[in-house]
Write a structure and sequence with these properties.
mainly alpha
């Protein structure tokens, strides 16, 4: 990491090669004033901030305006807000960021944590910043609700925003409005898209649009095992070899950690020629998976780009959703399906509520009819 921590007076700052404020394409050694207290807790906070900034620099996502507000903590306006018992918005968010990465549970998968922060937290915290009326404004329940309402009703973005901001509120000991959960509802497949999931026949036909045999294997893995984009490249596929049980293992370095997945449909293992992956180590496309140089998000983006390049009539997540619905139709318990997909049962039931409800109702109807006819 090219950043080092320095102490100036009673404050900690960062110093290193950073993009120019007026000429971002040119880097030079500069100081980033954070205004963090020079104590043990402050040192831990700055170490975590340094990791976040280092990741931004590697992905060309560093922006001075995101971090320079920390220096405002030294201005008289901010000092007066501290005296009134208010903590400026940027300081609160930076403290939340530090706590996020300091969580021992996240240290087990640093790359996954960086991906989660970049995709599931940072966009909504940026929105929160943009909606604040002044820099010295602290986080309030009203501001949180304002940010939530800035996303379309019933959208996945609104639900993700709800999750991120609820975590921030918990960190800051702020009570959420009573109707927060109701206002946040809408996670999962959009109500207008639930009938548009690809059929099994369309999934099989779409394979023919992919000329590259390596990317065909990627497609086949996602269709057969319901994997996330990046998970394809972070799996133990040895069970696909001759005599194996066909149960693949998603590695701990992924977004949601290690889990095992069974094929649905099992016959698709042969249909997509996935048995090759059990004994050929380089059968998949050659892309960078070194998480010291890339992120899970970037790996996943490569998959999405290939789907668009081949003009497939479905998305990577269509394959994942179709796999989930397939397990519902065959009667696999929701707890088992959720575990295989690497998410909680709560998220699983919210996302696939329509199909789960239909299945449960159909089972109840079948049972009632069987009793009536007995």
């Amino acid at each position: 990491m090219g950043l080092r921590i320095e102490q100036r007076g009673m404050r900690l700052n960062l110093r290193g090669s950073l993009p120019g404020r007026q000429t971002p394409e040119r880097r030079s050694v500069q100081r980033l004033s954070l205004g963090v207290a020079a104590n043990a807790q402050g040192l831990l906070e700055v170490e975590q901030i340094a990791r976040v900034i280092d990741g931004q620099l590697k992905r060309d996502q560093f922006r001075w305006e995101q971090w320079s507000a920390a220096a405002a903590a030294e201005t008289s306006t901010t000092d007066s807000s501290h005296r009134r018992g208010e903590t400026p918005l940027n300081d609160q968010i930076e403290g939340f960021c530090a706590a996020f990465f300091a969580d021992p549970r996240r240290r087990r998968s640093p790359s996954g944590s960086r991906t989660t922060w970049a995709g599931a937290y940072n966009p909504y915290l940026r929105r929160l910043r943009s909606l604040a009326t002044q820099e010295s404004e602290g986080v309030t329940s009203e501001l949180l609700m304002k940010a939530l309402h800035s996303y379309p009703d019933g959208s996945r973005s609104r639900q993700q925003c709800s999750t991120a901001l609820a975590s921030l509120a918990k960190h800051l000991n702020i009570d959420l409005p009573d109707d927060w959960r109701a206002e946040a509802a809408g996670y999962g497949l959009h109500r207008a898209r639930f009938r548009q999931l690809p059929s099994d026949s369309l999934i099989l036909e779409s394979l023919l649009r992919i000329p590259n045999p390596r990317w065909r294997l990627v497609y086949g893995l996602m269709a057969t095992y319901g994997l996330r984009n990046h998970e394809v490249f972070f799996c133990d596929l040895s069970a696909l070899d001759t005599g194996g049980d066909r149960v693949i293992r998603v590695l701990p370095t992924t977004k949601t950690g290690e889990h095992q997945v069974w094929p649905f449909h099992p016959e698709w293992v042969e249909r997509f020629d996935l048995t090759r992956l059990g004994n050929v180590s380089d059968a998949l496309p050659s892309i960078s998976t070194d998480l010291r140089r890339t992120t899970l998000q970037q790996v996943g983006r490569r998959v999405s780009e290939q789907f668009r390049r081949y003009e497939l009539p479905l998305t990577p997540y269509d394959l994942r959703h179709a796999w989930a619905v397939r397990t519902i139709h065959i009667g696999l318990p929701d707890t088992v399906s959720a575990r295989m997909m690497g998410h909680s049962v709560a998220i699983h039931t919210r996302t696939y509520h329509h199909w789960i409800t239909r299945r449960d109702q159909q089972q109840a109807v079948d049972t009632a009819l069987a009793r009536h006819q007995a």
